[in-house]
């Protein structure tokens, strides 16, 4: 697992990678996208931007909250 200080989340970050690499990220992803993300096969290829578009939410809010986890 990478150290969280070396990671910067962007809208292009893959949801699955973020969940694996950042402690607490699963809670943020569930908050914005629901728990269906955890069983979706697209988790490995879909970005935060894509997920936000599909769920009608602001990707910037998700990215900001994920990056806050690493402070």
Q: Which sheet architecture does the biggest sheet show?
A: none
Oligomeric grouping of the chains: single chain
Distance between the termini: 17 Å
CATH superfamily: SP0561-like
User: What value does the Rg take, in angstroms?
Assistant: 11 Å
Strand content: under 5%
Which structural class matches the secondary elements?
mainly alpha
Overall number of strands: 0
Order of helices and strands, N to C? HHHH
CATH class: Mainly Alpha
Task: Enumerate the spans where pLDDT stays under 50 for 5 or more consecutive residues.
Answer: none
Compute the number of helices: 4
Mean model confidence by pLDDT: 91
CATH topology: SP0561-like
- What proportion of the residues is helical, as a percent range? 40-55%
CATH architecture level-2 label: Orthogonal Bundle
Give the tally of structural domains.
1
């Amino acid at each position: 697992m990478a150290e969280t200080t070396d990671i910067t989340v962007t809208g292009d970050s893959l949801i699955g990678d973020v969940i694996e690499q950042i402690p607490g990220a699963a809670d943020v992803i569930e908050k914005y996208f629901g728990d269906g993300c955890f069983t979706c096969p697209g988790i490995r290829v879909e970005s935060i931007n894509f997920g936000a578009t599909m769920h009608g939410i602001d990707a910037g809010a998700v990215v900001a909250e994920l990056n806050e986890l690493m402070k």
